[in-house]
Design brief:
5 domains; alpha+beta
């Protein structure tokens, strides 16, 4: 007894199983979170080592390289990138995607610990952290202080808002930016300390020795244990001023206030925040990896709303960037597409079946399959994100197909007068293998997609498994609920019975009969003129090449999220104040255009004070009549006008929020030295400028960072008894300064910074007058060293242990796929010095990886489809006939994308893979019926295909139309996120149209040709043909 007979014989049981699936689905839906993309994991570990006062070259040589050598030999490493900046080294270790990030971070931590002794003693403790893409900022606020200073406002944010919001479920961290932190300044007077024969480093050491608490153990006093500790911490500014740091020859005490000005102030700002042109304090709320963005944002908003009621007067938090808003709008767009697509698919079925009862029975599969799939998604820990919702929206036309085919076959039995129960059993049995095969071919193409490697696999696992689950549930419903309802609520046709709705049905029947008549004539013509049909099919396939060449190729169609990032790099050496001054008019000019809502400006990010970064938010896509590209061009023009000579780059936010921002085109030029690399990078830049379609092209290398180089005379230093390291430390203590511990007041720990006052470190002469402590007393730096002016890079970038210069560019008016071959050809003409090389990065690299992954998935899908079809038809040849529909589907897909002016990107590729599972459905239904007629009715192949074509015409057209109209809302949508979704649906719709039209003609021709060939071979070798041999081509009347 098969599953259909069980369902028909036990209707209550069938209903209960279906209800159980629905209940579980509803429960799962209520538990599903909402996010933009699936939770992806890119194993990346960052090592940051502060080296205060060090130039980029020193940082590279003394810190970066030892760390690089330590981690590069770890297992599972993909790439190692390093950045040596003024005062800090950063090593980014990128592991392969299958590496456990926890284990990777542990191994990096161990290697760094083993290398710690090789680093200069002045470096601070290495900070090792995982760069978690899933832990991305979900919402950004600015905080107004009601007239208070930025530093005071920032302190309030750190002390009050940050700890409160970090208690919210799903929040990983709250990062406060803007405003300076409190710091005690000890500004030494060089003339006074010289008169007392003191040095900054000696005073620093004395102050450290005076500012500490030291435990001294314990002793027993009777039955009690008494702890002993020395209390010497400095807890007030006045106590610091009164600290004795030296004694004169006459025994007088030298207090700190005698030689320095001590003030409770704020640290020197190296980074500022502006919101809409005004200095601001902002805070980013970062969610935990795997947590739901929308839920976290809602909880944060609710918590902050309650917290604001307790704020002192004047404090006000305002949302600047809210990622959950776009996610909600995107999800809403897809949900509407699902509802409209489902309604249109049901309407198509009603028009073809012309029977309300049959339509309702078939349509039950749609909500049942969709709702039940939510439980599978919940069980697999998926979310309602772009990929899962897109899977459901594209599957709408599929979910009803199996039920439609089964119901249509049952209806044919009912029309012959068979009683409902028998009609349901026999109708389902006849079509069951075909329906099973068509569904399994869809599963066959999406299982490889779900388990693709690389970045693409991370995104499309949920997409592939969601479609797979949905179509398997729809198959189950088609084999159980549909036959059961048909057996209970259908009526056998009674000869002579009148249909009250016939006047309404007659026009539709006339149209269907006309279509069937036309098809019979076309089919007859095709079978008589096989060469003409073959030539036409070949020409259609051949035309794909030129069309694909005109389309262009991208990594991904960038969505219009109403946001973009503009970065401006001013000449190296530009002060932070000057950067802020030059950028302000541009920010205000942009905001004069009411299409721009917010400009959140970060000045001096990552310690590079000559750079400004804008996060620009525009009005939503639905409320403006120009594309985002036009607004980006407008902002770019304003920035160029306000900051002449600046390097301007405009990029979209990362495809996945939290990932690194990368330009579409990134060319890495590698070599040993910058003397070699700089002119080579210039050659590459000139070659790129000659290629049309490039925008924002710039070399990410700034060699003009002014620096003062102090060269120690080793002979003089040796005679004075001073090692070079001591001179370097003394110089750093004088200019950069150093911490002499903390001043602890309640919960606050305020750093105490000791250095020369600004007036004593403002010129080259001031540097030369600085003193160094020697065994014979303080000596001026001029007596031990010389100074010279020079220039150096502001950042030294390395990858895979080689220095590199990266050239960034965006595309404008041309696709990435068009430009890359021209770049490759242009670069081939550049003569590379020994040891130099170039590499593509950014979206070019991602596009290459995506194409490889997609190609592998398509190859596996084709193999699986063949295995399934060969198993069903017990033939090695007939599956090839069916699979001929694959390239026929590609014809419509490419033409559809070309006509709609879409490029071949990740979304379109997934549409084509989905198409591979869909287009075989028609050929399976057609060929299966022909083989049944040969096997069971004794028809010749010609008779079988002539009968099978018209018999299967209605279900083929019905399922194809249901798929097309079910996906039409997604294809025509222009709402949030449509740039990514629409190409998928367009590729599928175009492919279904072409494969339906061509397969109804080409597949019969190929089938008959194969059967004729088999018959000829059988007669030639004297083998009895089975099934019966070929017949002659039909006459025009036939």
């Amino acid at each position: 007894m098969n599953i259909s007979s069980i369902a028909i014989n036990r209707p209550v049981f069938t209903v209960m199983v279906t209800l159980a699936l629905m209940v579980l689905g509803v429960m799962g839906y209520t538990q599903l979170g909402t996010d933009l993309f699936p939770d992806v994991s890119f194993p990346v570990v960052a090592v940051t080592v502060p080296y205060p006062g060090a130039a980029p070259g020193e940082v590279e040589q003394l810190v970066t390289r030892p760390l690089e050598e330590a981690v590069v030999s770890l297992n599972g490493i993909d790439r190692v990138k390093t950045y040596s900046r003024e005062g800090a080294s950063q090593v980014i270790v990128l592991f392969k995607l299958d590496v456990d990030i926890q284990q990777a971070a542990t191994e990096v931590r161990e290697r760094v610990a083993q290398t710690r002794y090789k680093l200069p003693t002045e470096t601070k403790e290495p900070l090792i952290s995982r760069i978690d893409v899933g832990a991305a900022p979900v919402i950004t606020y600015t905080l107004e202080g009601g007239g208070r200073s930025l530093s005071e406002t920032a302190k309030f944010a750190r002390d009050v808002i940050k700890p409160s919001l970090e208690q919210v479920e799903g929040v990983a961290a709250v990062n406060v930016l803007g405003g300076a932190e409190r710091e005690v300044h000890v500004d030494l007077d060089l003339a006074r300390i010289d008169a007392l024969h003191l040095s900054p480093i000696a005073i620093l050491q004395q102050l450290r020795a005076q500012n500490l608490n030291v435990p001294a153990g314990h002793f027993d006093e009777g039955v009690k244990e008494i702890s002993v500790r020395t209390v010497g911490e400095l807890r007030t500014v006045e106590a610091i001023r009164e600290t004795i740091v030296a004694t004169t020859k006459d025994g007088s005490s030298v207090r700190l206030s005698d030689i320095a000005q001590v003030e409770d102030g704020y640290e020197e700002l190296r980074m500022r925040i502006r919101a809409n042109g005004s200095p601001a304090v902002s805070f980013d709320v970062v969610k935990q990896s795997g947590k739901n963005t929308v839920a976290v944002a809602d909880l944060v908003k609710a918590k902050l709303a309650g917290l604001e009621r307790t704020f002192p007067e004047g404090y006000k938090a305002s949302v600047i960037v809210d990622q959950s808003k776009f996610i909600r709008e995107n999800a809403h767009e897809v949900e509407v597409a699902i509802l409209f697509g489902g309604a249109m698919a049901i309407l198509v079925i009603l028009m073809f079946m012309l029977d309300l009862r049959s339509t309702l029975i078939s349509s039950v599969a749609l909500p049942t399959s969709v709702v039940s799939t939510f439980f599978v998604m919940y069980a697999l820990h998926f979310t309602l994100n772009m990929m899962t919702l897109l899977a459901l929206s594209l599957a709408i036309g599929l979910l009803i197909d199996d039920a439609v085919v089964v119901r249509e076959n049952i209806s044919k039995h009912l029309e012959r007068g068979v009683e409902p129960r028998r009609a349901a059993l026999e109708g389902t049995r006849e079509i069951s293998l075909s329906v099973l095969a068509t569904t399994l071919t869809i599963v066959a193409v999406f299982v490889p997609v779900a388990f693709m490697s690389g970045i693409v696999g991370q995104f499309f696992r949920q997409f592939g498994l969601t479609i797979t689950a949905a179509v398997l549930v729809s198959l189950f419903v088609a084999f159980t609920l549909d036959p059961m309802l048909s057996s209970r609520f259908s009526k056998a046709h009674v000869a002579g019975a009148k249909d009250p709705f016939m006047p309404l049905k007659r026009p539709f029947l006339a149209v269907f009969e006309g279509i069937e008549g036309v098809y019979r004539r076309v089919l007859g013509f095709a079978l008589r003129n096989k060469i003409v049909v073959g030539l036409g099919a070949f020409l259609a396939l051949f035309s794909i090449g030129p069309v694909a060449g005109l389309m262009g190729n991208e990594f991904v169609n960038q969505e219009d999220r109403g946001q973009f990032v503009l970065e401006a790099e001013l000449p190296a050496g530009t002060k932070l104040d000057e950067t802020a001054r030059l950028a302000l008019p541009a920010e205000l000019k942009v905001l004069e255009d009411k299409r721009f809502i917010t400009v959140l400006s970060t000045l001096g990010a990552a310690g590079e004070v000559n750079k400004v970064r804008w996060r620009v938010v525009t009005v939503p896509k639905s409320k403006r009549d120009v594309p985002l590209a036009e607004l980006k061009d407008h902002a770019r023009d304003i920035a160029y006008a306000a900051m002449p000579g600046a390097k301007i780059t405009v990029t979209d936010p990362p495809f996945v929020e939290g990932a690194a921002t990368e330009a579409p085109i990134m060319v890495q030029v590698r070599g040993a030295t910058y003397d070699e690399l700089a002119p080579l990078a210039h050659e590459f830049e000139q070659a790129m400028r000659a290629i049309p379609g490039m925008a924002d092209l710039q070399v990410k290398y700034s060699p003009g960072q002014p620096e003062l180089r102090v060269r120690v005379d080793r002979d003089k230093a040796a005679r004075a008894g001073v090692p070079v390291a001591q001179i370097a430390l003394a110089l750093r203590a004088s200019v950069e300064g150093d911490e002499a511990g903390k001043m602890r007041q309640g919960k606050d720990e305020v750093p105490i910074r000791v250095r020369l006052r600004s007036g004593d470190r403002a010129t080259v002469d001031d540097v030369l007058r600085m003193t160094v402590q020697t065994p014979s007393g303080p000596m001026a730096l001029a007596d031990l060293a010389t100074v010279e002016r020079g220039e150096g890079p502001s950042v030294i970038e390395r990858e895979d242990r080689e220095r590199q210069i990266v050239i960034w560019a965006s595309t404008k008016g041309r696709s990435l796929g068009e430009i890359v071959p021209e770049l490759t050809a242009a670069f081939a003409k550049i003569k590379l010095p020994p040891g130099a090389s170039y590499h593509f990065d950014g979206q070019i690299r991602q596009m290459t990886e995506t194409n490889g992954s997609m190609g592998a998935a398509m190859g596996l899908g084709i193999i699986f489809i063949y295995l399934i079809l060969a198993s069903q038809f017990e033939s090695f040849i007939h599956p090839l006939t069916i699979m001929l529909t694959l390239p026929l589907g590609f014809v419509g897909a490419f033409y559809g994308l070309f006509i709609a002016q879409r490029t071949m990107a990740m979304g379109a590729m997934i549409g084509i893979i989905l198409l591979m599972g869909l287009v075989t459905k028609n050929a399976i239904l057609l060929l299966d019926r022909a083989l049944v007629r040969v096997r069971e009715h004794g028809d010749t192949p010609l008779e079988a295909i002539l009968a099978a074509g018209p018999e299967r015409l209605r279900p083929i057209l019905m399922t194809s139309a249901a798929m097309i109209l079910g996906m039409l809302p997604t294809a025509t949508s222009n709402g949030e996120g449509s740039e990514f979704r629409s190409p998928m649906a367009i590729a599928v719709i175009g492919g279904v149209i072409s494969s339906t039209i061509l397969s109804l003609v080409v597949v019969p021709v190929v089938y008959l040709t194969i059967e004729n060939t088999k018959g000829h071979l059988a007669r030639l070798f004297g083998i009895k043909a089975s099934p019966p041999g070929p017949s002659e081509a039909p006459s025009p009347a036939e």
